[in-house]
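From the shared-data thread, chain only:
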Amino acid sequence: QHARRSPPSVEFYDRSGRVGLYVTRLTTFGDFQLDRSREPLRGAFPSELADSARDALTAAVLAGMTPHPMQPAVRRALDRLGEYWRRAAGTLPAANPAEAHRHLREQIESVNSWEDFLAARLSVDVDAIVPEADRARLDALPTSAPIRGDRAALDYEIENGQGVVRLRLREGQARRLQEKDLPVVDRPLRFTVIRGKRSAIRSDDLDDLRLKLLSLPKPERRRKGRGGGGRKRRR
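Structure, as C-alpha cells:
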C-alpha cells in the first residue's frame, strides 16, 4: 500500500525488434524499483506527453539510435561538430554539444507523432554553424606525429574542462619512447597505449607511462619447436 506509481514519461526504445516511442511508468517502494511498464505510444502525442516524447526523440537522434532516413548524415555531422569542440578545447560556442541539442530540438518541436518524426527534415549543417575561419584553424591542427621513423595518432579530448591531446601509441612504440621524441603541441600532452584485445594504458606524463609499462608482465618468449624445443621437424 506504500508503493508509488510515477507519472508517465516517454522513452525511445529499440530492443527485441521493437523500435519507437513507449510510455513508461515506474512503481517504486522507497529507493527500490518494483515494476516498470511500457506501452507503445501510437498516433498523435497526448498534450501532456508531447514534450517528453520530443525530448526522447531528440536524445535518440543525438545518440544515433533512430531509424530516421537522415540519421546517418546527422550522426556524421554531430561527430564532426564534436571533433571541432574537442580541438577547440571547449571554447568554440558554435560547436558546444548543448547547442547541437538545442538545434535538433527546435527541428523536432513541430513533430506530433512517430510518423511525423520519420517524415521530418532533420539536418545539421556544420559549415553553416562553425565559421570558416574557425574551421580552417582547427582543421590545421595535426592529426599525427612522427615517432622514431613511424607515426602515431593525436586524439583531441577535454578532461575536467581542459583541452588535452593524447598521443596514441602501440606498446612497442611506447617502450622505446624518449623525451626527445615527444611532439610539440599547443596543450597538455597525454598518452594512450593500445594493446590489442588487452586494456589500453592511459597516462598523464612520460614517467608515469614508463612505470605502468614496467609493471606489466613480460611477454612470454617464443620457444623453438613444439613443447619447448624437444623434437626436430622431420625432413
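The two ends are 83 Å apart (CA to CA).
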